[in-house]
Amino acid sequence: MGVTLILSLPAVVIALVVGIFALKRQSGDRRNLPPGCFGWPVVGESLSFLFGKPEKFVCDRMKKYSPHIFKTKILGEKTAVICGPDGHKFLFSNDQKIFTAFRPHSMQKLFRSYQTSASAQIPREAESKLLKSPGFLKPEALVRYLGKMDYITQQQIQTYWEGKVQVKAFPLAKILTLSLACRFFVGTDEPERISRLINYFDDITIGLHSIPLNFPGTNFYRANKSAAAIRKELRTIIKEKKAAMTSGAPMLDILSNMIVATDTSGKHMPEMEIADKIMGLLVAGYSTVATAMTFFMKYVGERPDIYSKILAEHMEISESKKDGELLDWNDIQKMKYSWNVLCEVMRLTPPLQGTFREALSDFTYAGYTIPKGWKVYWTVNTTNKNPEYFPDPEMFKPSRYEDDKVFPPFTFVPFGGGPRMCPGKEYARLAILTFVHNVVKRFKWEIVCPEEKIIGDMMPTPEKGLPVRISSH
After folding, report:
1. Which residues of this UniProt protein bind heme (predicted)?
2. How far apart are CA 281 and CA 284, in angstroms?
3. How far apart are CA 128 and CA 150, in angstroms?
4. Is pLDDT at 215 greater than 70 in this prediction?
5. Residues annotated as binding site for heme?
């Protein structure tokens, strides 16, 4: 008995010290923190965030705590979720002033360049300048790629869609978007290489927002293995690209420009870092675009009236062109109704749920103080289905977008906003509209499983791949 008591004393003392320290910290923190709950020790509310619907996670807490802001702990970080159009405006207008970008720990570990020393990396500002300087993602540069985008899309539809009675839209959208991204960012469109990479990118997409537990059976473990496989493939591509450039090949893609880019001291990026950054661009240009294409097929397949209007728009464009003539910028500008439809697709099923920032200093919002170092989560789910901004929010209604001034500012922001607005917005718009043009003018379709379950909470995924019955015009 005495021995047991003696052995247990250190544990009791430690518990008392930890408890007193926690109480002192709590009582000593006079800042008016937002309402909310940090959840369980260590994991916080991560399980509810990752495995419950993100929309439900956010909306439930807005109702319980505040429609403007609440605190939580997700993915290992104390986090403030800033809500509504005023919250969007505050975040977007203070990027790089009060906030800086933050990648969750799972993402940092998958993209290894974030773990290397700062001296080995091109700074983030220089990286951003690198993307912008050749103007790769600006409309004037994308116009030059539009014909190739149309050609690749036509090839994919001929290979995987034509002559079929039924196809699964989601897998085929993923093959198309990865083919387009590989051609645009890397300069390769080898079908065998791309088909080899598809499953790896699926694993990474799931692992980006996961608890970083690296043992067999976890999402993160699979994502980590897939990232290593992609990195290996990309290093092979980098060596091939360097050899081609030595032989005088033109630098027509982002990879070529990354290879020649230098930091302020004249040093080139290491190959491993180039591979990481290209992998990030490919992930960004893959899953979200494929998701938007897939749910376009779903919602339009359920609404013949909307399909007829889209078809009329694209047949008019098609009839104005010569046989074999590819899409051009003027054609894209004529796809106004189609883009309205896609906006409604992205409102109902956002391809991107949200992103994280980090507070550079203490700041006050809606009467509450958010401490320096806390993470701030921005999400479209605080406005997308609010009936105050979108009457009958569950209804698929493309006519909402016919008047650009119909919504209050910052209520519909599928690509974010401010300095960190998605740089690939225009690329995504062209890729999706090119797909719409080609699939609508060739086929009509109906949904095979109208009640198909949508899984993958951070990245919406039709459980059966969205099978559709197709027939040619």
Report:
1. 422
2. 5
3. 27
4. yes
5. 422
Measure the CA angle with vertex 63, ends 65 and 463; round to 5°.
120
Maximum average pLDDT range among 271-275, 290-294, 350-354: 290-294
Q: How far is CA 425 from the centre of its chain?
A: 11
Mean predicted confidence (pLDDT) in 388-411: 88
**Token reading at 171:** 């897998």
DSSP string computed for 184-221: IIIS---HHHHHHHHHHHHHHHHHTTS----STTSHHH
pTM assigned to the model: 0.87
C-alpha span between 208 and 339 (Å, rounded): 29
CA R_g for the chain? 24
Binding-site annotation, residues: 422
Token pair listed for 259: 């290879």
Q: What would the pLDDT profile of 342-398 be if each residue is shown by its tens digit?
A: 999 999 999 888 889 999 999 999 999 999 999 999 999 899 999 999 999 999 999
Q: 3-class DSSP state for residue 52? A: coil
Instruction: Tell me how long the chain is.
Output: 473
The dihedral sign for the CA sequence 164, 167, 169, 172: negative
Q: What gap in Å lies between CA 301 and CA 270, rounded to an integer?
A: 47
Q: What is the DSSP annotation of 122-161? A: --HHHHHHHHHTTTTTSHHHHHHHHHHHHHHHHHHHHHHT
- For 276, 280, 302, the CA distances from 66, given in Å and listed in that order, are 39, 35, 36
Q: Which DSSP letter does residue 384 get?
A: T
Contact 303, 263 (CB under 8 A): no
* DSSP designation for 235: H
Please state, in angstroms and as integers, the Cα–Cα distance from residue 395 to each residue in 379, 399, 454, following that order. Answer: 21, 11, 17
Instruction: Dihedral sign for Cα 336, 337, 338, 342, please.
Output: positive
Which residue, among 291, 282, 278, 300, has the nearest Cα to 174 in the 3D structure?
291
